[in-house]
Specification:
By secondary structure, the chain is α/β, with parallel strands linked by helices. The protein has one domain: Alpha-Beta Barrel (TIM Barrel), CATH 3.20.20.70. It contains ten helices and eight strands. It has an eight-stranded parallel sheet with strand order 7-6-5-4-3-2-1-8. β6, α8 and β7 form a beta-alpha-beta unit. α1 packs parallel to α2, α7 runs parallel beside α8 and α9 runs parallel beside α10. It is globular. The model has no long low-confidence stretch (mean pLDDT 94).
Length: 248
């Protein structure tokens, strides 16, 4: 039985003070949610503070990105070991905003994922198609290509990652894939993970894209959707808790 995972991606929101206030409030609200895994991804500046507050709670901390080199002359970048040292246990890799705005290629996502695993961070690897790709009937080909770019070089370590399917056309747009649309893609991804690793039935595949409390229950009732990577709806503790409870 796969335990549901709910990860909050705050993107470029929240100061250190706002983050610590949120973690205190959230960790108190979720004490009774014993059958889910909970992850918060604050900005880099707040990871250490969030990790300190979350210590001895049910909440894990993630970074929103990383650079694949261990150290060096890479101004502005943050490595996997730095993220681990700050107290995080997870890291988001390949989010569509990183791919679209900052040029992350499939190769870079592969290298970042391998760097995360080497540093004993759990990578949450994001994949998803654009609206144009979906309308052209390319959804399956696109997501399988993006996933293949990661799992083919991870070999036995691939089972240590979490996959997040985020249709680009549904991120921050208010549009959401129907439960059936999301399930169809998740089923394809699980079959691909099973064929590549032999562990696909126990690996977590999350959905992200304009998830809110009022659509969470139907989305997360699908057999291959194991939780969510939540953006804007995770910025208020009560809203994020409502999503987690709706799915439970």
């Amino acid at each position: 039985m796969r335990i549901p995972v709910f990860a909050a991606n705050w993107k470029m929101h929240k100061t250190v003070q706002e983050t610590t206030s949120f973690v205190r409030e959230f960790s108190a609200l979720v004490k009774s949610l014993t059958q889910v895994e909970l992850i918060l991804a604050p900005p880099f500046t707040a990871i250490a503070a969030a990790a300190e507050i979350a210590r001895n709670t049910r909440v894990d901390i993630a970074a929103q990105d990383l650079y694949f080199e261990r150290e060096g002359a890479f101004t502005g970048e943050v490595s996997a070991i730095m993220i681990r040292d700050a107290g995080a246990s997870h890291v988001i890799v390949g989010h569509s905003e990183r791919r679209r705005l900052f040029g992350d290629t499939d190769e870079w996502v592969n290298r970042k994922t391998r760097a995360a695993v080497a540093a004993e961070l759990t990578p949450i690897v994001c994949i998803g198609e654009t609206l144009a790709e979906r309308e052209a009937g390319q959804t399956e080909a696109v997501v399988k290509r993006q996933l293949s770019a990661v799992i083919h070089q991870l070999t036995h370590c691939a089972a240590e990652m979490v996959v997040a399917y985020e249709p680009v056309w549904a991120i921050g747009t208010g549009r959401t894939a129907t439960p059936e649309q999301a399930q169809a893609v998740h089923a394809v991804l699980r079959a691909q993970l099973q064929a590549a690793t032999g562990h696909g039935e126990r690996m977590k595949i999350l959905y992200g894209g304009s998830v809110k409390a009022d659509n969470a229950a139907t989305l997360f009732a699908m057999p291959d959707i194991d939780g969510g990577l939540i953006g804007g709806a995770s910025l208020k503790a009560a809203d994020f808790v409502a999503i987690c409870r709706a799915a439970g």
